[in-house]
Amino acid sequence: MKTLPLAVPHMNEQEAEEVFGWILDGEASDEEIARFLLAMTERSETADEIAGAARALRARLIPIEAPDNAVDCCGTGGDGHHTLNVSTAVSLVVAACGIPVAKHGNRAASSKSGAADTLEALGLDMEAAGRTAERTLAEIGICFLFAKNHHPAMGRIQPIRQKLGKRTIFNLMGPLSNPAEVKRQLIGIARPGYVPIYAEAKAKLGTERTFIASGDEGLDELSLAGGNELADVVGNDFEMRRLDASMAGLPQAPIEAIRGGDAKHNAAALKALLGGAPGPYRDAVCFNAAATLMVAGDSGDWAELANRAGEAIDSGAAESLLARWIEMAA
Q1: I need a surface site. Which of 169, 172, 181, 184 has the fewest CB within 10 A?
Q2: Is 89 marked as a binding-site residue?
Q3: Against a cut of 0.85, is the pTM above it?
Q4: What does each C-alpha distance from 209 to 108, 153, 165, 235 come to in angstroms?
Q5: pLDDT digits (tens, 9 = 90+) for 12-36
Q6: Could you tell me if 134 and 330 are in contact, meaning their C-beta atoms sit under 8 angstroms apart?
Q7: Taking a C-beta distance cutoff of 8 angstroms, is the pair 301, 105 a contact?
Q8: Does the annotation place 88 within a ligand binding site?
Q9: pLDDT in tens, 34-45
Q10: Is residue 2 part of an annotated ligand binding site?
Q11: Does the annotation list 105 as a binding residue?
């Protein structure tokens, strides 16, 4: 067994890749890993450490074939707000707009219901969805890349994360390690002040275009409640912006308006949303879908793209897509 280094001082990118290689390869004890992760969280991870850790995870993943224009939208989790599954709904809406979505996700580690939990409650067979991921992505433009199927090295880490019950660097690594190797993403993180650090990590790894977003109240997606920090990452560089819902022609709403619950509760809300239910949940989905469509290359402005997302819901296209997905994965 390896003895993990003290989390202070900070590691450079190469050192982080090596240390997280040890962790992922089972060369450290559960107790050592838990201690190390908590220490990193307490003093905050650097861009070099996030990029190096992500490289270690990428080197051990099982990839899939995907269209060149495939995108992903996800949050790092761990924001403590326990909202409805916004990025899961966004994935369906964006795919219904004709953009292939390789949705990378997991069960809940630090929330009440992760993307996998909610999709399963809606009737999607997660095991079958994993087996048919390449086919559904190619044929209907969506798939769910269940982390446990593509990151076997995480099998031992997940119980440690669940026992800790709080955000760790693994929340940050996941969105940077999509098995479809998507080049365009919307990633929400739970700390607005951390957006430029995470954007720097993403820039070190390279991307065609990625938005890193965080609501001012610490929401790991674009928030309706107030302002948002947004990093626009292109290639190996990024620029910071400020954004609020009014720019997309949407009203403000408090976080409590999209508070979620368990998988059954969140699935019912998502089903109602796809059925055309108005309200803050729909607005939050349209806001984040607009961002995803923008990074995918759509030339519309924020309001135009939010309207396009709304049309994908109101036309029944997103609802039909989910039904087709469930049928193909049966």
Answers
A1: 181
A2: no
A3: yes
A4: 27, 28, 32, 7
A5: 999 999 999 999 999 999 999 999 9
A6: no
A7: no
A8: yes
A9: 999 999 999 999
A10: no
A11: yes
Sequence-distant (6+) residues with CB within 8 A of 175 are 72, 74, 75, 76, 104, 185, 187
Can you tell me the distance from the alpha carbon of 95 to that of 90, in angstroms, rounded to the nearest whole number? Answer: 8
Q: Which of 34, 73, 309 is CA-nearest to residue 189?
A: 73
Answer whether residue 110 shows pLDDT above 60. Answer: no
Q: Binding site annotation covers 109? A: yes
Three-state secondary structure of the chain: CCCCCCCCCCCCHHHHHHHHHHHHCCCCCHHHHHHHHHHHHHHCCCHHHHHHHHHHHHCCCCCCCCCCCCEEEEECCCCCCCECCHHHHHHHHHHHCCCCEEEEECCCCCCCCCHHHHHHHCCCCHHHHHHCHHHHHHHHCEEEEEHHHHCHHHHCHHHHHHHHCCCCHHHHHHHHCCCCCCCEEEEECCCHHHHHHHHHHHHHHCCCEEEEEEECCCCCCCCCCCEEEEEEEECCEEEEEEEEHHHHCCCCCCHHHHECCCHHHHHHHHHHHHCCCCCHHHHHHHHHHHHHHHHHCCCCCHHHHHHHHHHHHHCCHHHHHHHHHHHHCC
Distance CA 249, CA 253 (A): 13
Give which of 51, 31, 49, 52 is closest to 41, Cα–Cα.
49
Q: Is 111 annotated as a binding residue?
A: yes
Sheet containing 71-75: order of strands: 142-146, 101-105, 71-75, 184-188, 209-215, 227-234, 237-244
Tell me: is residue 246 an annotated ligand-binding position.
Answer: no
The reply, when asked if residue 283 is annotated as ligand binding, is no
Torsions phi, psi of 209, nearest 5? -165, 130
**Amino acid letter at 240?**
M
